[in-house]
Amino acid sequence: MPEASREDDSPHVQQLRAALHYAIGRICDDVAAERGTPFRRTVVATLTEAALSQAAVMARDLELFAQHARRAAVCADDVKLLVRRSPTLSAELQREARRLAAHAKVAKERRRAQRGRRGARGAGRGASAAADPRTATDDGEVMELE
Amino acid sequence: MDGNPSTSEGAGDAAAAAPPTDAPEAPAAPLVLKERTVEELMRLHFSSPRTRLGAEGLRLTTMALQLYVREAALRASDQARLTGAPEVGLEHLEKVLPQWLMDI
Of which family is this protein a member (chain A) (predicted)? Predict the structure, then answer.
């Protein structure tokens, strides 16, 4: 959505800034609790602005990586490429990516097994609707890893 | 150039021997940053309306942004401790920001 004024002060951006500010306040609270030194409010505000700027850079880079791979959707590989310069970020993300991939694999095999069982009951074509991955899974996970 | 605060050059004092902030064995901190927020933030800056974030991409981007911000907070906190300050102020954040910007 290429609007000229979308960058700084539209209500939507203000809303995002507020949400980010809240989360960053909590991140600073955690660090303050761990280290025993409180953060001044101005630091949280400044860090929020810095994070907003960096988020813009991240978004553009992620989009470019996905486009380079001829994809419309930004995927795990794109994010891993983004954080390649930081060893700590790379390590954390690698671990989480593996966990997510393993989880997706388990969910997929479970769905495949459920589809197989339904087919065996002789429900025929009608079974295909009930075998929809989203209704079949009992995960309750919001994340739809398919 | 390792992003680890204990080896950060931006501190101006290499004597700090703080332990690594992210022990590999420790589980990742739970996300305080909402995926929904990050998704909208990213979409705001995508140049194409076709570009979107997959579920895994969104989760990892959210983690990355949260960890990245946490890294800045940790380094600023380290800087405050180095100077013996009672609280983390702008002068500490400003000192660590340049290196932080280069580490992603």
Answer: Belongs to the TAF9 family. CENP-S/MHF1 subfamily.
